[in-house]
Model the fold of this input.
Amino acid sequence: MAPPLLLLQNLSLTLGGKPLLEGASLSVSAGERLCLVGRNGSGKSTLLNIAAGLVEPDSGTRFLQPGANVRYLPQEPDLSGYATTFAYVEAGLGPTGDRHRARTLLNALGLTGEEDAMLLSSGEARRAALARALAPEPDILLLDEPTNHLDLPAIEWLEGTLKTARSALVIVSHDRRFLQNLSRGAVWLDRGRTRVLARGFAEFEAWCDAALLEEERAEHKLDRKIAAEEDWLRYGVTARRKRNQKRLENLNAMRAERRQRRTAKGVRFEAAEADLSGKLVIEARHVAKSFGARPIVKNLSLRILRGDRLGLIGANGAGKTTLVNLLTGALPPDRGSVRHGANLLLAALDQGRASLDPATLLKDALTGGGSDFVEINGERKHVAGYMKEFLFGPEQARTPIGRLSGGERGRLMLAKVLAWPSNLLVLDEPTNDLDLETLDLLQDMLGDYKGTLLIVSHDRDFLDRLTTSVLAAEGGGSWIEYAGGYSDMLAQRGAGVDGAPISAPPMAAKDKPKIAATRPPKPKPRLTFKEKHMLDTLPARIEALRARKASLQSLLDDTGFYARDPAKFAEISAAFAKAEAALAEAEENWLNLEILREGSDG
Done:
């Protein structure tokens, strides 16, 4: 095996009196594709900064092969000191860099190179930083949330570019589809330490679940041991003081270990729900809206019913937020009408987090000020307890919002919006800055939400998991609704999301691609013989897999199993994870086939 280009070993780092990294390691070989996974605040960005040589750890070693070239994409690029975007990218090339490649990358990302570096939007700054990282064709690329503030065309372009790059990759991202398409290994940063999976992100979550299941078994044993030690301390012999002191120290260490494990499980989301709305939520009839000579929406008719989950997709600048404002009544149409159903209560998460005043204290943002309580579904909760559900410590209650990280601001906005009673939730880019675990919890909550959802997102996996239909921008103010999620839209449309990046120069009419969706979507095909056979046989397979899972679960429930035979326990745990994954896949296949059967002509 080739020696690693970059090796980090036994890193420890304490920030603000709190241990962040405790023995973390990372090895990157030539051409390797790794995703770095962990919840917000676990130290992923710090680990990348150490890998890039920008932060010095308290202890541990960093080794970089002589001559190896590393480039780092930070979450918040700093373009200060540069006059234009090209000057910023050119400065990162080095003495032997290719200026033509730098210009080509900027153009591919929708920038000319002449933009004022101090007047860029977040998305434009991210595009310039991507060009700067990619231009030198480094040996190692460290990418911290590369898809944040990018639209779908840019994300898919970036995927294609990275797939063909010779660079080794270490990627931190909340975008599951992006990680699945690019990674061939996973590094899990959890409570200061790293664990490595030699397979891509597609298999990470099943592996992680198996590891957590084994940890729960160990925690159960630890609880029993703590109970036994506490009983001994209360009723045991006290003559040997030194031995008792040692056992007391061990007990305190076990209690600290249990606290650390349980702290990692503290987040849960709950939405305050209002009474049900009427069956009709929103009806738009022949709606049109233009800004100057540019049409944003042209002759759109749409009915949204109670319980619908509509995703809005398109390139940046296509008018997704404008369309949401039209549908919710925040913006009047130029022509046509928008009618709302009865008893509609709306709560909205805006993309720019504009409603967060940087000077407002965290607890006041949640309570409105003047109170220490939040009311959720008729239940009064102390703000400290509600903060804890969103991974905020009580010491952060009086922290100004301006001092929170991007991920913390994202969680705060969710906590604020979910506290409002609603039966229509409008979420504009809700996945920005959230870690994968928080995304899972948000998806679970939205899956249980009894109201109606309008979601603007560039996260393909998020859309696939939640939406019942998507409304896609087709260009020229045309919008077409497709049944299902993003992947279903691709299958019906036969093409991805067209559209140039927001700051790209407009194309001449003769150069514009033909819009695939000017023709109606293809009718859904009938089930094939093979699909009908699968639909008939899947219920029996699902029952068999459920029985297999229950059988394995009963073995793992034996608290003495691990102590008797650790190797067998690991084998059964792996088999359980495999059965669980197979069951989830079979259930999803059955659901997809059932939907296809119901929607087919026969």
Remarks:
- The CA atoms of residues 205 and 290 lie 45 Å apart.
- The radius of gyration is 27 Å.
- The mean pLDDT is 82.
- Residues 566-599 form the longest helix (34 residues).
